[in-house]
Design brief:
Radius of gyration of chain B: 19 Å
Largest interface: A-B, 41 and 41 residues
Shape of chain B: globular
Number of strands of chain A: 2
Number of helices of chain B: 11
Number of helices of chain A: 13
Strand content of chain B: under 5%
Helix content of chain B: over 70%
Number of domains of chain B: 1
Largest sheet of chain B: 2 strands, antiparallel
Order of helices and strands of chain B: EEHHHHEEHHHHHHH
Structural class of chain B: mainly alpha
Shape of chain A: globular
Oligomer: heterodimer
Helix content of chain A: over 70%
Largest sheet of chain A: 2 strands, antiparallel
């Protein structure tokens, strides 16, 4: 067994016992945002695309899941799949517009389009406007397992997370992932080698949007509501921060970043009120100025240095 | 002649003017973004927050120190500009060699800090800033009443935009600036202090945002959140116009303001999204933007 496999095994064991120590809903929130950040990292870390409107997929899927489960009576598993597909479809629409420009414009376009969807959700009748979509039932998984129990739901959420994490891991290490990295490193060369760069970017975008949607739908199931906050640009900024803080382009970075930020917000919310935004902004500034590799990136650089110098 | 397309001409012209007022702000802000981007290769996400800071400073000046509108119009942009220069010297200058994205992320962080601080101090509800006496009331144009302050906002922003265009396109300083945008190293080799020009450009660009903020103070509610929603629309304006040309930024800003105003008359539901829809169409038809050049 490789050292990596042992590491993964240990982490999984830790996650299995986590809800006995920590409040399960908090861990589920961390898992949802970790999945969201991992999906985002697939774009920024492995394709070099900064999407500044990723919250739109989280929010859209939240509403789709909530509406299909609550109003149409979908079972939870079907609601999640349907919501993820809806987010992927929206990702296809937004992605095919945004990839027409690159670099800084790409970020501005994704931000603008997500703001457009935000205004749409604000006015659309099915979202409940400022109040959000309330009282979404958790239902029974496959008609058998009662998800109203926090522990049952926790293991379901963990299974979703592990599946998505595995999918992202496979994607990164597949030939498709190699092409994405080639685009990140040198787009012109990737084109000259005959790769249809636009198609690869779009596929990565759709995959990322779908997984972000899965995170949003799961979040709705956990909290039993979908709100406008999830689609707001603040949330888009948050996922950027999580990924930046954890380490862009590292496998575990987004998970570490999400756990840190969610815990921090949870701790600080009562103590400092609206100053949380200031602290988030300060972390942004510090990360960009002094800490660009993020927590995981810095640690692995340190590890390499120590083992290398020995 | 009291109706246009079934809309009373009063309402129609009123929205048109309001659109022009909004367009003036789009024009000033997108102009500042374009000038900064040209020189620093950074998209200044803090632009909206600095616009808000300009308005807040005007409000604070009036309420704490009795500084009137006209002095605010001079002092607030100056303060915002100095703040910008401090930011440029202490933070932004270390990012020029890195990917453009880091500049966006850093200024996003700054925007969060500014917005959070003001929100902690003043809450989210709007603060009133009364219209200066000189501009109270309205002109009667026969077919409509034109509030004097709105006319002043449009006039002032046109003057400032034109002055900026004139300095950059027609003066020696502007020529240095354009040279430094085109090729900073060669310009530096000719003995022009490029880092100084970069610093002043950023200071000027954000001062423009501060100026727009003071102009906006009597026209809209002064609130810590006034900048963040505006900046995203301005981003869309910048994508539509492209950042290649100064006149392009001005024309696009004003034009989109008018279109938005008219949408409010004919189909109010779409008034908050129409700019984004236009952006999507422009991306399909002319990805580089109306006045942009593909690099």
């Amino acid at each position: 067994m490789s050292r990596q496999a042992i590491g993964y095994g240990l982490l999984l064991a830790l996650m299995l016992v986590a809800p006995t120590v920590v409040y399960p809903v908090l861990v589920m929130k961390v898992l949802c945002f970790a999945l969201f950040a991992c999906a985002f990292n697939l774009l920024i870390g492995y394709t070099g695309l900064l999407s500044f409107g990723h919250a739109v997929f989280l929010g859209t899927a939240g509403y789709v899941a909530g509406h299909s489960i609550k109003v149409w009576g979908f079972p939870p598993e079907l609601g999640l799949i349907f919501a993820a597909l809806a987010a992927a479809a929206l990702g296809w629409l937004i992605g095919s517009l945004a990839i027409r420009r690159s670099g800084i414009y790409f970020a501005m376009i994704t931000l603008a389009l997500s703001q457009m969807m935000y205004f749409f959700f604000l006015q659309a009748p099915f979202t409940g406007g400022e109040d959000g979509l309330q009282d979404v039932p958790r239902g029974k998984l496959l008609g058998v397992i009662d998800l109203t129990d926090d522990y049952n739901l926790y293991y379901f959420v963990l299974a979703i997370f592990v599946f998505a994490f595995w999918l992202i891991h496979r994607t990164i290490h597949s030939p498709f992932g190699q092409v994405l990295k080639a685009i990140r490193e040198n787009e012109a060369r990737a084109i000259s080698l005959g790769y249809d760069v636009a198609k690869y970017k779009l596929l990565a975008f759709v995959l990322s949007a779908g997984l972000a949607g899965l995170a949003g739908a799961t979040k709705t199931l956990v909290f039993r509501f979908a709100t406008l906050t999830d689609a707001h640009w603040h949330t888009s900024g948050e996922v950027v921060l999580m990924t930046l803080l954890g380490g862009m382009g590292t496998v575990f970075g987004p998970v570490v970043g999400a756990a840190t930020i969610v815990t921090l917000q949870n701790e600080l919310a009562d103590k400092v009120g609206s100053l949380v935004t200031v602290i988030m902004g300060a972390i942004f500034v510090v990360c960009v100025l002094a800490f660009r590799r993020g927590i995981v990136g810095e640690l692995s650089a340190l590890y390499k240095k120590m083992t290398g110098s020995r | 002649m009291t109706e246009i397309f079934g809309i009373p001409i009063q309402a129609f012209m009123g929205q048109l003017m309001l659109g022009l007022v909004n367009g003036s702000f789009y024009a000033m802000l997108s102009l500042g973004l374009a000038v900064i981007f040209g020189m620093l290769n950074i998209i200044n996400f803090a632009h909206g927050a600095l616009y808000m800071a300009g308005a807040m400073l005007a409000w604070m000046g009036l309420n704490y120190f009795g500084i009137g509108y006209w002095w605010s119009l001079l002092l607030a942009p100056l303060a915002v500009g100095v703040f910008g220069i401090v930011i440029e010297r202490s933070m932004l200058q270390w990012l020029y060699k890195l990917d453009h994205l880091y500049g966006l992320l850093l200024t996003f962080g700054l925007a969060l800090i500014l917005e959070g601080l003001f929100r902690d101090l003043y809450g989210v509800s709007g603060l009133p800033y009364s219209i200066p006496e000189e501009f109270a009331g309205a002109y009667n144009l026969g077919f409509m009443f034109l509030p004097k302050y709105r006319a002043w906002v449009i006039l002032a922003s046109l003057l400032v935009c034109f002055a900026t265009w004139f300095v950059i396109e027609k003066t020696r300083l502007g020529a240095y600036l354009r040279a430094a945008t085109e090729n900073p190293r060669l310009t530096q080799a000719f003995g022009i202090n490029v880092p100084l020009m970069v610093m002043l450009t950023y200071g000027f660009g954000v001062a423009l945002a501060g100026f727009a903020g003071v102009l906006a103070a009597p026209a809209m509610q002064v609130s810590p959140l006034m900048g963040s929603n505006l900046i995203i629309v301005v981003f869309a304006v910048v994508v539509i116009g492209g950042m290649g040309s100064i006149l392009g930024s001005i024309v696009t800003g004003l034009g989109l303001g008018v279109i938005e105003g008219l949408t409010k008359v004919f189909y109010p539901e779409a008034s908050s999204t129409v700019v984004f829809i236009i952006m999507a169409i422009v991306l399909l038809v002319r990805p580089a933007g109306l006045f942009g050049r593909e690099k």
